[in-house]
Structure formats: C-alpha cells, structure tokens
Amino acid sequence: MPQPFVDLTRLLLPVACPCGEPDVRWCGRCAERFAGPPVRTEHGAGRLDRLDGVPPLPVWALTAYTGPVRDVVVHWKDRGRADLDLLLTGALRRAARDVASWSLPALGAGGPFLFPPDDSAARAGGASRAGRRSFAGPAGSRGGPAEAVLAVVPVPTAGPARRRRARDPVRALAAAVARGLVDGGAPARSAPVLRRRATRDQVGLGARARGRNLASAVRAVRRLDGCVCMLVDDVVTSGATLAASEQALESAGADVLGAIVLAATPSPSDGPGRATTC
C-alpha cells in the first residue's frame, strides 16, 4: 500500500500497542513477554488445593500477570481489541505444543479417556479421582468406537460479560490450545461444555471470597463420563475459577488433566526456582 494511504489510514483509524507505542497493534517488547515456554504455576493458586489428598491441578502459564501483560489482556478482553487475538492465540498455541508430550500418556493404547465424537454422552470407563494424575484406570466402551482425544474446555464466561464484549475471547484461546496440542501430537479439539451463571465480578475479591462467589455457579451442559479434559483460561489468580470448573467437569464424570492460561498473578510467596517448565 502506498505510504500516503498508510498515513491516512493511521490518521482515520489510529492503532497503538496497549503499552502506548503508536502505529502497531502490539510492540516487540510486549510480544516478547508472551514468547517464553510455559511454566507450572499452580503453587501460587491456593484455591486449587483440594484438601483431599489429590495434588493440585497442574497449571501452565506463559508469563506473570503484571504491568504490560495486564494492559494487553485487559485491552484484549474488555476494550474491544479483538485484533490482539493473533498475538495471544499464537502464543498459547505454541505453549500447548510444548505441553502436548506431557498429556500423551492419557491417550495411549488402552487408555481410559475417550471423548465422544458427537453430542451424545461418553460411554468409556473413567479413572478414579485419586488416580487421575497417574492416568490409571480401566478402559472400555460399548455401543461403538469413540475418538480418543483431549477435550479442550474454555472456562465459561457469564452471560452479561459475554454480551457486553459481544464475543467470548476465552473460546478463541481454547481453539488455539486444541490446535497446539494437535501440533504436538496429542489429538484434541475444543469443547465448550461449561456454562456459568452471572456472579459478582471477581476483580478485587480475595481467595476465599472468590471461591464463595463461584460456588455452584459453573456447570457442565451434559454428562461427560470418561472424557479427559484440559481447561483453558486467560489468567489464574487464586485458582477459584479453575477449581470451580474442575469440580463441574468432575461432577459430570470427566477427568481433568490440567489447565493452560496466558498469565498467572504472582503470589507473595513467589520466588526464584518456584516455577518449573513442562
């Protein structure tokens, strides 16, 4: 495009990185913050501690939810910057590719986890809650074959927020994660099977208040017996939203391997050596 037209377009439709750098949708510095390998961050999300002997849900994040990262995510979710989809979905697709090898044992020959090829209920035998981290459990199905594939489940957005944004950005992340898992050799597909009723905004609430706010607010739309799921969200803070989603999926008969998020809010206990790569 000739430079005069470029200049006119920028005048009529100005664009800037959320950090303030003009004339780019995102700058190199902000993009770099989402370029690192995914790291395990569940240690900082206290609400993921189930207190039942099962280890906390593994959670991978690309970066810390601070400074420019917060600016990018807020602009993307709540200020109409759908043009940032390309940056964030691309980053999470790469992260999922790295996590794929960790999830593959759940999909091995004779593995228990099956995702239904249509909207009917899954009919495969699932693993017990206590054994889910080791992927142990009997296999088997009846009534025809099912496709062994990870169900990539976006954490649900409440209706009012979805209508205000005129879209559900976390679903875009889930679709990217499914593609990344496939890139890494793990069969997967997006499965938006959770719904969330309207609750008070989580912003500004402490860990306990977040948990109470989400109690019984998330549910699965159908039975998911024998399915294995990977949750996806944009940010993890206390872990209350992921915990509620995990509980809803398990109540529907599914098994949850872990979660992948863009960013994690640092906890006061964060320090060198706490995060581990996949």
From TrEMBL:
Region of interest (Disordered), ranges: 122-144
Signal peptide per UniProt: none
Matching entries from CDD domains are given as: PRTases_typeI
- What SUPFAM superfamilies does this protein's entry cite? PRTase-like
Highest taxon of source: Bacteria
Provide the family line. Answer: Belongs to the ComF/GntX family.
Species source reads Myceligenerans salitolerans
Name this polypeptide is given: ComF family protein
